[in-house]
Amino acid sequence: MSAHTHRTRMLFATALTAATLMLTACNNGEGVKDEGAAAGSESTASTSPSPRASGGTSTGKGGTDSAGSGAAGSTGGTAGSDGATASTGGSGSTGSSGSTGSQDPGPTRTPCSPASTRTTATEVSRPLNHLLLTVTNTGSKNCNLVGYPAVRFGEAQSVPPAFEDSKPQAVVTLAPGESGYASVLLSAADGSGSNGYTAKSLEVYLDQSASAAARPSLPAKGVYVDDSIQVSYWQSTMADALAW
């Protein structure tokens, strides 16, 4: 091989190698650009919602729905509370049946009257010269014996006073069938009374303001009355009445 030929091949090889290097360099540059574009694409993807991100948004809405359901549940709880309140209201209605207690809230304020009672007058042996008045409730409701009886014997123009010390602590209330009592001191036991007379009739006004009188029977012989006459307040027992 001649020296000229060898140099020519060397030059050709050198030129070929340089061309190859340039081509590779160009390809590498494009590759870098491609990688940069890919990076840019990733950046763009991270800026705009991806289907997964949208899915995440949907999931978020689903979370909102769940929260909404929770809110609805709270509302339901409120409704339940209202229901409980309604139940309580129902109990209140049942409580209104407590009006049964209002049938007899306490002592009645209705005074007894001859129309709903029976009055008897009984002469007793002890204490001396006493008459026992008994008033029995024959009605269907409670009534009160207020104060003391106003009694009128025969043609007397006035009613006797009461023993003030016999006033009870409470008004005597008679349930249906129950009785109340008062005593009448007819005359002085020692005969010291004056203006005595025999009475064969009796009117009993159950209290000082009564307009109607009961007329119990007296013994056939009548009863002796003088100006010592006094009455007791109404009492709930016979013993209390005859103590005066």
TrEMBL record:
Polar residues composition bias: residue spans: 110-123
Gly residues composition bias: residue spans: 57-80
Region (Disordered): 29-124
Keywords, alphabetical: Lipoprotein, Signal
All residue ranges annotated as the DUF4232 domain in the record: 112-235
Signal peptide span: 1-25
Domain of life the protein comes from: Bacteria
Biased composition (Low complexity): 37-56
Glycoprotein in keyword set: no
UniProt key word Lipoprotein: yes
Protein name: Lipoprotein
